[in-house]
Amino acid sequence: MKLLTHNFLTSNIIKGVTKGYPLQIMAEKVDVKEVEFNPDFVTKMLPKIDWSALIKAAKDVGHGDGLPEAVIENPESNEEFLKAAHNALMQVEVIEGKLVCPESQREFPINNGIPNMLLNEDEV
Amino acid sequence: MAAPMEEQETSKKSRRKLLKKILRSQQTVLKRDGIETNNLCTKILCVINGGLDVGVSHDEISTIFSSHGDMEDIVMLPRKPYCFVCFAREHDAEVAMEKLNGTELPPTDHRGNPVTLYITYVSKVPQSLSPSNEFPPGLILIPDFVTEDYAGRLLSAIIWEDSANSAEQRSLKHRQVRHYGYEFKYGINDVDINDPLPNGIPPVCNDLLSDVKLKGIVNYIPDQLTVNKYEPGQGIPPHVDTPAAFEDGIMSLSLGSQVLMDFRHPDGRHLTVLLPPRSLMIMTGESRYLWSHGITPRKSDIVRMESGNLNVVKRDVRISFTFRKIIPPQERLSRILPTFNDKTSESDRDLDQEVTDLEKLEKEHVHQVYEEIADHFSGTRHTPWPRIVDFLNSQPPGALMADIGCGNGKYLGVNPSMYQIGSDRSSNLATICRDRQFQVFVGDVMTIPLKTSSMDVSICIAVIHHLSNQERRLKAIEELVRILRPGGKCLIYVWAMEQEVNKVKSKYLKEKKFEKSDSGSISSTVDCTINKNSVNVSMDGNIVKSDCMGDTDCSLISANGSETWTENDPKCNGDSEINVVRKGPSYSGGIDSSLSDTSTCKEDDCSKEMSCIKLAVHKNRTEFRQQDLLVPWERKSKSDSDKNNTSKCVFHRYYHVFMKGELEALCGKVRGCKVIGGYYDQGNWAVILEKL
């Protein structure tokens, strides 16, 4: 699971949970896989993502260094920033661990890089 | 002088012999179309090679035959190599037969070669041309429902204005209509409840309507009337009255001419019902929701007389009064439309129990099956469907896309300029996606764990038909819309009940057909026969050559309709018409109806604890006969050591196949989105939604 994917995941599908975002990551195994840097793609992602959730996720998995607390001005012209964002969004992958709902503490396992977001019947 | 006469006689005799021989060779083909021929003279002639499929026109036949007697009508059927010529008197038919049998027509623009007409008397015409012996289920026909006098008063109450085109009266392409109460708007196939017409249903109809209610034919008073006026030769295309818009029980009073009405089931069954003058027809249940009805434009109808002989009855002007009761739009959301199985409804009970069982059904017959067959399933799904690829490639770079129910991820790599996240309920299928380096999570389409308004695009291909009631299917679409940003688009595909639309079959079916069809100019008559027996095909359009084809290690039957079915392997041929009978509440009347309307069930017929779930197992290579069914997926494996030792696993997947318009109607119930496109694609219905 890339952190870009994580940025869109929520647990507010659980009955009664209103703020299931961002999901806390408790990682047991994290990989960094090289992905071709595409500054245009990263620039396009920035308005679509929740930056503070990305920062928190990156810190959760120990890859938060070098990321500013907020998106900088004119990010498209700052390659250093874009590369840091690229790394966090596209290269860092959680392989084993779990996601935790910030409201209900419900845990969702991550195995082989795949989060299991299925709910039990009584949680729907 | 004697010699030439004899010669002439001999050549005449040998010519007759030859014609008889040729006709005999055509008998089987004609029989297959439901045509019976006769040596005795009848009023109706079948003219072989005088049909549209051979490139012969109505005008040509008319020119040739009209000079030989009082011709009533010529009936040309689409894609048939023959036509029927109907005469007023048997004698005229006899003369035409004598003179014209063996006539050669020269080549024209429409046909490259000359054709020879072979003529025979007919004692039975194809089912589509004369009244059937049975009615579609739910259809009620009451002859002589009104008196001549009352019919006259009804007709005089309708004022037809010359060349009017208003909300009240429209001239359609093939007929004239007048509306009362509300205008039926053909653009939307619905009425606008906020835009009533100044004139309600004419008071002269009150006697009829109260009579109908009194007799318990329907339990409401209609509020919308459409009067149709058909000149001879006019008709109405096949249609189903908008299910969500009008109550069950649509009534139509026929005045003036008789007419044959065509009823067609999505599985290809075709029944024709003769509507005599002053009869009242009421379409209820299956005949109202499942069968389409229409009138083929013709100038006459062929009916069987009491003597058993066929007779041609000319059509005159026919005026029909169609009464409908509008369902208020605010009520439509909560209505769940009935669905129909082949078996008549006997229904259901305890709601909670029911829901639990539906979940169990999906769990056993969808989730577990995909988990089991994941590898095998994935191995048969390589090629993305072209129209879905087009949709994905039309999205801009950097778009966020969620593929909910992504299977083995065959759409996740289509447009790599997007960021694509897949989701499937099967962890085995998710693992296959992961191995292919795709982003994927395990999740349910009814609870998508993605942020509201976060995605630019969502797709859901061949998923929603696995959900076992309308509420659940609706919930899935709501979720697909919820995750979209405003302006975001969603593409949904479901398997269609109709596996042949506008006479167009998939490429796969066509290939099969040609393998089996007879050769010669008359081969097109084979269509319907072969089609009846052919595979329902298609979910995965790409299919035909699965990895398993011709390989003894495994063979698939049916599957998503798509996979291989091996023509010559008896093991693959349908032995699957069995019922799954399990303990639990019954929903043999259709799962949806059982949930929606417990009041209609006969409480004493079923006990709460012990009733049966009956879902027919789909028989491979047949059309669908019901909307809710189990489709077998068969996996055979032969051990290397012993070739006779074949183990066979059959998995049954639950499906609810969609009728035409059903998917759009469902999407119409989802707030905050609009349907911006819809189409039929190789046995599937598709819609494109846009979030508002």
UniProtKB/TrEMBL annotation, chain A:
Gene3D superfamilies, per database record: 2.20.25.10
PANTHER family xref list: MULTIFUNCTIONAL METHYLTRANSFERASE SUBUNIT TRM112-LIKE PROTEIN, UPF0315 PROTEIN-RELATED
SUPFAM superfamilies (UniProt xref): Trm112p-like
Family statement drawn from the similarity comment of this UniProt entry: Belongs to the TRM112 family.
GO biological process: rRNA (guanine-N7)-methylation; tRNA methylation
Source species, domain of life: Eukaryota
Organism: Pinctada imbricata (Atlantic pearl-oyster)
Protein name (record): Multifunctional methyltransferase subunit TRM112-like protein
One Gene Ontology term of the molecular function aspect: protein heterodimerization activity
TrEMBL record, chain B:
Organism (species): Pinctada imbricata
Catalyzed chemical reaction(s): 5-(carboxymethyl)uridine(34) in tRNA + S-adenosyl-L-methionine = 5-(2-methoxy-2-oxoethyl)uridine(34) in tRNA + S-adenosyl-L-homocysteine
Function: Catalyzes the methylation of 5-carboxymethyl uridine to 5-methylcarboxymethyl uridine at the wobble position of the anticodon loop in tRNA via its methyltransferase domain. Catalyzes the last step in the formation of 5-methylcarboxymethyl uridine at the wobble position of the anticodon loop in target tRNA. Has a preference for tRNA(Arg) and tRNA(Glu), and does not bind tRNA(Lys).
Family designation: Belongs to the alkB family.
Catalytic activity, EC: 2.1.1.229
Protein name, as recorded: tRNA (carboxymethyluridine(34)-5-O)-methyltransferase
GO MF annotations in UniProt: S-adenosylmethionine-dependent methyltransferase activity; tRNA (5-carboxymethyluridine(34)-5-O)-methyltransferase activity; tRNA binding
SUPFAM superfamilies reported in the protein's UniProt record: Clavaminate synthase-like (SSF51197), RNA-binding domain, RBD (SSF54928), S-adenosyl-L-methionine-dependent methyltransferases (SSF53335)
Lineage of origin: Eukaryota, Metazoa, Spiralia, Lophotrochozoa, Mollusca
Annotated ranges, domain RRM: 45-122
Domain Fe2OG dioxygenase: 221-327
UniProt superkingdom: Eukaryota
Record-level GO cellular component terms: cytoplasm; nucleus
GO annotation (BP), single: tRNA wobble uridine modification
Primary enzyme class: transferase
This protein's UniProt keywords: Iron, Methyltransferase, Multifunctional enzyme, RNA-binding, Transferase, Zinc
Cofactor(s) listed in the protein's UniProt record: Fe(2+)
